[in-house]
Amino acid sequence: MIVSWARRYSIVALTSLACVICYSDRVNISVAAVAMREQFQWSQTEKGLVLSAFFVGYLLFMFLGGVLATRIGGRIVLGCAVLTWSLFTLLTPPAAMTSLAALIAARIGMGLGEAPMFPAGYDLFGRWVPERERARAVAWLMSGIPLGTIIGLAGSAWLVAKYGWPMTFYVFGLVGLLWLTVWFPQVTNDPAQDPRLNAAERALLPVARASSAAARARLPFAKLLRAPVLAIVAGHFALTWSLYVLLSWLPSYFRDVQHLSIAHAGLFSAAPWLTMFAITIAAGSLSDRMIGRGADTTNMRKLMQCGGLLLSALFLLATRNAHSPGTALLLLCGGTGALGCSWSGFAPSVLDVAPRHSALLHGFSNSFATIPGIVGVAVIGWLIDVTGTYSAAFVLTASVSLVGAILFWWLFDARPVLG
Question: pTM for the complete prediction?
Answer without folding.
Answer: 0.80
